[in-house]
Amino acid sequence: MATFLYRVGRWAFRRRRLVLGLWLGALVVAGVAAATAPAGQEEDLSMPGTESQKAFDLLDERFPQSNAQGAEARLVFQAPDGQRVTAWENKSAVQDTLGTLDGGDQVASATDPYKTGAVSEDGTIAYSTITYTADAVDLTEPTKSALEDAAGQARDAGLTVEIGGSALDSEEAPGGTTEIIGVAVAAVVLILALGSLVAAGLSLLTAFVGVAIAFGLVSALAVPLGLTSTVAILALMLGLAVGIDYALFITSRFRDELARGGGPEEAAGRAVGTAGSAVVFAGATVFIALVGLGVVGIPELTKMGLGGAGAVGLAVLVALTLVPALFGFSGRRILSRAARKATRPRSERPHPVPAGAGRPGLGTRWARFVLRRPVAVLLVAGLGLGAVALPALNLELGLPGDESKSVETTERRAYDLLSEGFGPGFNGPLTVVVDMSEAANTRAATDQVVKTVQGVDGVASVGDPVLSGTQDTAVLTAIPQTAPSSGETKELVHAIRDAVSGVEADTGAGVLVTGTTAMNIDISEAMSDALIPYLTVVIGLAVLLLMVVFRSVLVPVKAALGFLLSVGAAFGVLVAVFQWGWAADLIGIEQTGPVMSLMPILIIGIVFGLAMDYEVFLLTRMREAYVHGASPGEAIVHGFRHSGRVVAAAAIIMISVFAGFIGMSSPTIQTMGVGLAAAVAFDAFVVRMAIVPAVLALLGHRAWWLPRILNRVVPNVDIEGEKLSRHVPATETVPDAAVPVLPGGGR
Q1: DSSP structure class, residue 228
Q2: Are 212 and 100 members of one domain?
Q3: Which structural domain, as residue segments, surrounds residue 611?
Q4: pLDDT digits (tens, 9 = 90+) for 48-88
Q5: Do 697 and 586 share a structural domain?
Q6: pTM for the complete prediction?
Q7: What are the CA-CA distances from residue 566 to residues 522, 571, 652, 684, 685 (Å)?
Q8: What is the Cα–Cα distance from 456 to 501, expressed in whole angstroms?
Q9: 447: number of Cβ within 10 Å
């Protein structure tokens, strides 16, 4: 691999104009495709095989006319203090408002709350359901404006009016202020780490090219593949983070090779052959972990995994080809002015730099500190992460709805008004589907189901059954007494399912409980059940891959245990922030509740690959020194001297990018940003920078031990580029002690 990538790096360097032209062409094509493609539609989560999904499928089959409807909106009216919506002037204002909508463009119907009974018991709140002939994504701006104008008309009459439903979308599009701040922080870190505007700009430019192509492709394929905005945001988030990191790693190695006296083309080849090998492995681990999300069985999670994997794959290709191509345009200007003077070719150097000159860098000093006190460092870091992970024992999973949105949104205010007027369970109705195709007496079966559901504790009311055209299916709505995301509602769903099992045995009818609330509960439980198996697969994959890379048994085991610690601590942060409300005000979270059910598995998949990034880039330099005769302690110092500051800079960049998405209004994206930023921080700075060197120091030579039988069967991928040194003429090098310390942390 190292030899092949060496040739790729040199080819890209020589053919830099061709490579740059191809990538720019791909960028233009992706941009045009995204601009001309229709917008994707936000789809509800589905979970094939669950009871709620089976019920939805049955409804699609037996009630096709009801599923042909488009978007829905709810206009929620509240009378002024001390008044009722049933008063003549308020009733007139409501009906006049609805009259402006009924018969409007794309409007199928607008219900009259005074005829449908959609008025609260105290008479202060009423609502109307507006049904459209088109899906939410196909609603025109004039249609949406008409809805908002109607609400404004009622407000002018003195009523409080809020809009709920799917017709309006208050979610932020990617590209807000907080993301820009995150990228700005990444740019500052790059400049400080590399000491060169050219080098920093190169890393940012290549990352932007890769993520722009990925984002454009996701947008262009949104309709054909059913991709949602969450998929696009995940691709943007991951593409930026790993794109900057991968470019940074290869750029840092290129500067290192230049510092050793190599020519720019040779240095580009060696940088791609060595650091590029690590990039390929690291990108492959992220790719595999994300694609593996498909085994969970949730289509939306599968799409998110594939979208993120595609962005990571593009980031790897950009790092291996476009980055060395841009080396050809920058040459030695990628070094700072001082570094360029210190790294002139050997023949032009009048006197070598005195051995031992310069103070050891921070990475070297830290490594020596850990070597002196490995037990203390291990205990403090391990116990600290364990303490942070303790809240994860109380992890509750769920799916956020309008109740988790900001109170600044009209959807959240509409949710609160409906809860106030009709009870907290009104926003989370349960749909009970009765399949009577095998029942002997359909009327008796339906009546028994209604009576049974009404008798379950926690049910506030049960609506009249609605029969299908063929009279073989009945649908009734049960309103819980508790809020959709509460634990009591979850228990209620199971209680109803247990209660109707007797009806099924007595009548032969099939009874299924569904609805958005039931579907969310089923998905959350499926996620909980899949968490341990998926984590087991990921850990097993990590152990096998690292065994191949480092030809060691204990290094992979140590890496897997460290990964578990960092993920556990990240889950602890999610529980503390999103369930308990710690520091929630700082990031704009106004409503606590269960953690988004997709997050744990998604974070495991993403962080697994990112953790392996840091493990590979840090330990390859250690193993490189060890196999060339350095002692275990010297190998640790060597690894931190050459990679410590680069890995730290990469981690800060990734944390900044992920944290930049916390300011978005979407609870899903907020949870993802907090979880990923915390996981990367714990894994990079606690696990890889503290626990890893401490464990390696305690293990000594045993850390690099591999049994003979495994030594014969485990393939040698040569990620350090050892074969490259034998097959490629060696670059004229300067003795290690004479290599100057560069601002990027290399020598």
Answers
A1: -
A2: no
A3: 2-36+173-342+374-399+525-738
A4: 788 888 888 888 888 776 554 567 889 999 999 999 999 99
A5: yes
A6: 0.78
A7: 28, 9, 16, 9, 10
A8: 13
A9: 14
